[in-house]
Amino acid sequence: MTDFTMEKGADGVAVITWDVPGKSMNVLSMEGAATLDGFIDEALADEAVKGIVITSAKDSFAAGMDLNILADFQKNGAEGVFEGIMSLHKILRKIERAGMDPKTLKGGKPIAAALPGTGLGIGFELPLACHRIFVADNPKAKFGLPEIKVGIFPGAGGTTRVVRKLGVMMAAPFLLQGQLVDPKKAKGAGLVDEIAADPVAAAKEWVLGAKDADIVKPWDAKGYKMPGGAPYHPAGFQTMVGANAMIMAETWGAYPAPKAMLSAIYEGAQVPFDTALKIEARWFTHIIMNPSSGAMIRSLFLNKEALEKGANRPEAPDQRVKKLGVMGAGMMGAGIALVSAQAGIEVVLIDQKQEAADKGKAYTEAYLDKGIARKKTTPEQKEAVLSRITATTDYDALKDADLIIEAVFEDPGVKAEVTKNVEAVIPADCIYASNTSTLPISGLAKASSRPEQFIGIHFFSPVEKMLLVEIIKGKQTGDRAVAKALDYVRQIRKTPIVVNDARFFYANRCIIPYLNEGARMVSEGISPALVEHAARMLGMPVGPLQLIDETSIDLAVKIAKATKQAMGDAYPADAKGVDDLMFWLYDEGRLGRKAKAGFYAYDDKGKRAGLWEGLAAKYPLAEDQPDVIEVQHRLMFAQVLEAVRALEEGVLEDIREGDVGAILGWGFAPWSGGPFSWLDIVGTPFAAETCDRLAETYGPRFATPALLRDMAEGNESFYKRFGPQAKAA
Q: 350: Cβ–Cβ under 8 A, 6 or more apart, which residues?
């Protein structure tokens, strides 16, 4: 079976149907593109065919391009990428011109796209090349060009066509932000033409009635002017300046794709359409050949998808959760109950007092009420979700649960008591999980009579927004518990990583040094603004000082005290500067954003009002400030070296989990693809050399791990040594 089929109707309309076998959504392969091209040629040459409708046999239209295409293009270098992209341009331009006379613009055959559902990426670039776009009245459908979010931009004509169709200002949300919209918003924005109950029937009707003028795109017609003005027009010039400022404000210059896209828009807007397509293809090639692009695609598409599909799931029967018990109805427990009930799972939410349990359930109600106000949820959906949550103090309600997630206070004694009380009620085969962010799972499992069924499931806050879930295997955790946790995370549509037990596990182990390094630099007299801006220019979503404020300074103090107690004499001596600063802020009552006072000052509404001036009084600025690269190296290697040590020590078993977990868990510079991808970009020899210099200047926390040293000596990359191909071999 091929990706495309064509049926010529007696009414003179040829219907080309897209249906990729074995895929829930269509993706475009080069073989599929060639088949489509052949059908277009055949239909245009057949005198009996009056017009063409391109549609899908699935509920959606298409999800985008098969990413293996880009890998195939790259095998022949930049020239291969450019020629491959231009071959797609040629097919789509053929659809757009539809056999019309190039001078008179007459004699072409109308071609319409009929989309039953979602069309993204190339799945929307193809319709954009058609003469009219009909979409089903499906509020769940999404349309747009989200490529910018994964390190590339629309390179098969989407950038050029959307700009020429809407103008730079109106196109900006869809191109520079990757915004996706439903049918009504897509029509309102001018991205699609018609919403129809039966888009294929509506498309056929239009095709049979279309005239020559109906199929000439505005940019091919004589006298075309770009909406809002071209770059050399006064209004257009202002738009370009604003777009450039917007990109820098959102990306801090860390991401190459937005700048390349804007260059393609600016240059392409000043030349004829076909030349603009070549410019788009050249800038797209430039981005594809940038290692950042490949790293982002690998981590945010390929690796993420592999982990979500169970790449590291042990062999075990289906472990999907039917009834979940959540112990503790605080912020975390309430969030876990919310996402679980939304996924169709029956939830028992337990707390010591009924009032607390009810408050936890009310969190879901308030969240759904906001969804109703934004028209993302219906009252009926709200009632269905709430009906799945039972808020109670009665442990007997857990007697038929198949998974328990404990989310009580971070105290081993409290957790141990809850474990024993719950295990007295739950079935023998029920899996028990602790949602702890710092306490070792093997230690908590000592309170359990069935440690092989005890596991860690670490959610990130807020649960409903954060995409990552960290699953922690204790020393005695069995395969079925791991499979249960993975199947549950898949049910709630989040991305799992599986790590072995160790203090702080993986994510917190890496993020705490980032926070500490930022605070340490302040204690050394380095400008707090330099620290924060250097982090943002690295691509971090927030600077370390802001993140400390967000997570709270009292939490940082608590972690420092607990770590010092646990490590004893092994507690690093160079932590004193950080501890002194954090303890001072704590004593000053500056607990972070929740107290409207921390590293930052806040207004009455809790909005940041700049870095707190009082820092300078306690920690005056040094006369000699380091350059921004030095600050960035300290912030970057503080995180990356912990990731390497986690792999070295066996906490991490798969570098894909290390990269995906870093990006989704704490926002590690997404442009880099994650810590291991970043090390592959800069090269292990450079990384080891830089670590040696940093260690000599700042101390042993930057010491080069033995694994990194070994790889540097052989100029090895992490993905060649530890990637899935290497593991398979």
A: 325, 326, 327, 328, 329, 357, 392, 393, 394, 395, 397, 398
pLDDT tens per residue across span 648-697: 999 999 999 999 999 999 999 999 999 999 999 999 999 999 999 999 99
The DSSP 8-state label assigned to residue 597 in this structure reads: B
Give backbone dihedrals phi and psi of 274, rounded to 5 degrees, phi first.
Answer: -65, -35
The closest alpha carbon to 673, from 298, 153, 223, 121, belongs to 298
- Helical spans, DSSP H, in 524-670: 528-537, 544-551, 553-567, 576-587, 614-618, 628-648, 655-666
Strand partners, 64: 27
Q: Which amino acid is at 541?
A: P
Q: Is 491:584 a contact under the CB 8 Å cutoff? A: no
> 608-611 and 143-144: which strand pairing?
unpaired
What's the token pair of residue 346? 């029956």
Q: Do 577 and 524 contact (CB within 8 A), yes or no?
A: yes
Angle separating helix axes 628-648 and 675-682, nearest 10 degrees: 120
Residues in the chain: 729
For residue 653, give the DSSP letter: S
At 326, list the tokens: 């959540």
At a CB cut-off of 8 Å and minimum separation 6, what does 728 contact? Answer: none
Among 675, 598, 606, which Cα is nearest to 641's? 675
Per the CB < 8 A criterion, the answer to whether 335 and 464 are in contact is yes
Q: Write the burial class of residue 317 (CB in 10 Å: 0-12 exposed, 13-18 middle, 19+ buried).
A: exposed
d(CA 296, CA 289): 12
CB proximity list for 469: less than 8 A, separation 6 or greater? 457, 458, 459, 460, 489, 492, 494, 495, 496, 497
**CA 707/CA 316 separation, integer angstroms:** 33
pLDDT of the residue at 529: 96
Give, for 194, the enclosing helix (H) or strand (E).
strand 194-196
Q: Helices in 312-465 by DSSP H: which ranges?
A: 331-342, 354-373, 379-387, 412-423, 441-444
List pLDDT tens digits, range 619-659. 999 999 999 999 999 999 999 999 999 999 999 999 999 99
What span, in angstroms and rounded, lies between the C-alpha atoms of 195 and 136? 6
Name the amino acid, one letter, at 494: K
HSE-CB at 517 with a 13 A cutoff on CA atoms is: 29
Nearest to 523 by CA among 542, 544, 538: 544
- Cα separation, 232 vs 267, in Å, equals 11
Query: Is the CB of residue 471 less than 8 Å from the CB of residue 489?
Result: yes
Q: What is the mean pLDDT of each run of 10 residues along the chain (729 residues)?
A: 86 95 90 94 95 95 82 82 93 94 92 95 95 94 88 90 91 88 94 95 95 93 84 72 76 85 90 95 93 87 89 92 96 96 97 96 95 90 96 95 93 92 95 91 94 95 93 96 96 95 90 95 96 95 94 86 79 82 92 92 92 93 95 97 96 96 93 96 97 96 96 96 78
Tell me the β-bridge partners of 572.
none
